């Protein structure tokens, strides 16, 4: 099996195929956010929100994706002025495709409630007495989530690299640092919005 298409679909499939697939996953992610009541704060970052409405869920997913597309397109133009907007759009949409798995994993395993219970027990006892068996589902879920998030970052890196054709280590470092700061800034900005 050729693993290249799994980690770099941007060099294998046409821009139309990537765009249609990306839009399909955008819709899946939006509905998954709504049904799990977990809002998208930024690329690869989510927060539980029991009051998440259909409109708010759609707006948050849209704002996160559109702002990432604009940010990465502007960055891409600095690196390579011939970068096409559709390539950056596909990069963001495809990199966000596995997000519905993250949302489902968080909801199904009740990871947040497990973490809250551990914190409450530690505060009540004034010591951290943890049964290793209680931590097993949390650790297992965290490993799965970490793998999915790393896969998303690999997709966004490979898509951006394919779109801009960058090769210098300075461009790679610039991309990684600016993407990290964009995600942090966007996360704080979205959490301060009242949608």
Automatic annotation (TrEMBL):
Keyword Cell membrane set for record: no
Keyword Ribosomal protein: no
Localisation per UniProt entry: Membrane
Pfam family, one: Yip1
Membrane topology: Multi-pass membrane protein
Domain Yip1: 19-185
Transmembrane region(s): 18-38, 58-79, 91-115, 135-160, 172-190
InterPro entries, per the entry: Yip1_dom
Protein name listed in UniProt: Yip1 domain-containing protein
Native species: Flavobacterium geliluteum
Protein keywords: Membrane, Transmembrane, Transmembrane helix
Gene Ontology CC terms, in alphabetical order: membrane
